[in-house]
Amino acid sequence: MGSGDSGRGAGSDRVASRVESAPVKKSLIAIALIALACGKRGDPRAPIPVIPKATNDLAVVQRGSKVILTWSYPSLSTAGKTLTDLRRVIVYRTSEELPGAALPPLGPQQFTKLREKVDSIESANLPAATSGAHLQYEDTPPIHTRDGRPVRLTYAVITEGALAKSDLSNLAAIAPLDVPPPPSDVTAKPKPEGVELTWTAASSAKMFNIYRAGASDPSDELATPINPAPVKSASYTDVPAYGAFRYRVTAVASPGPPRIESEPSAVVSVTFKDLLPPPAPATLTALVETKGVRLLWDPVDVPDLNGYFVYRYQGKARILFQTVDPIPSTHFEDVSTDPGIEYVYAVTAVDKNGNESPERKSEPVLVPKTP
Predict the structure, then answer these.
(1) Which residue spans of the chain are classified as CATH 2.60.40.10?
(2) Looking at the predicted structure, is the pLDDT value of residue 112 above 70?
């Protein structure tokens, strides 16, 4: 009886142990399932496309038979972030025959319906199309209908990124004209008042633009002319800062905007420096002394003064006492005089660019003979 009870007790304990462990196992399984559920990845989301910002400063001019477009290099997305996946820029154009009356400008929707793709500038070719902070594109479209009537050309560009395109740019329109040939025989001469430009032009050329660039500046096809309005004669005087420059001249068919002009002339180079001489000393006094003649003069007050040259006249002959450099002082002693000879002295002021003033002469002086 006792042993039987003992057996039943042991079996009961095993059953109770199994009953008690069941909830624990379920809890562990639940925890594992929760852990697996927490680690499960959701459905992948498509990356947010980077949309290039639309160009808003497209501009157009005509140079000879070419139509030149320029616009800021596309560098930003619509979110204001740096654009790093630029693939290409697409150039579009429309061409419309111009009637006798004014033709209203195209709107974006009309342009989109009528446009044709002119070209695309691929990412590998963008550096070659870049000028400073701008892109440039040259188009050579027909500027008349087949029977010679005028046309209006309208352009726009679209920037294409890796996953999205920009909106259409602003529209830039031009009605091309027949332009005169470029001026020839252009000369540039530095003068005290500035650089004097002259040229020869065809009889059909009535207006001109002048372009200036530094000696080492890159060429800019769409630079602003230095003349505020078209020049109506075959000469122009420019007053730049001192330095080395290159000049070109075009014949203007329409001052614009948009500007319509010939191809530029051949380049002429010139160095412009200070060519205005300083004033002469106000007075010059010659004092006869025992050993020669002492000269005294008033100083010249100019910021770029380099000194003075002293001359002596004997008859019509003029002698320069300094052979290389001007003297910095305002006095000089001539110890090479001969007794009994009459002399006239002169002093000039010289600036740092080598410009020499007129002479200031003394009264004639006679060196006496010694007894």
Answers:
(1) 59-174, 184-272, 284-366
(2) yes
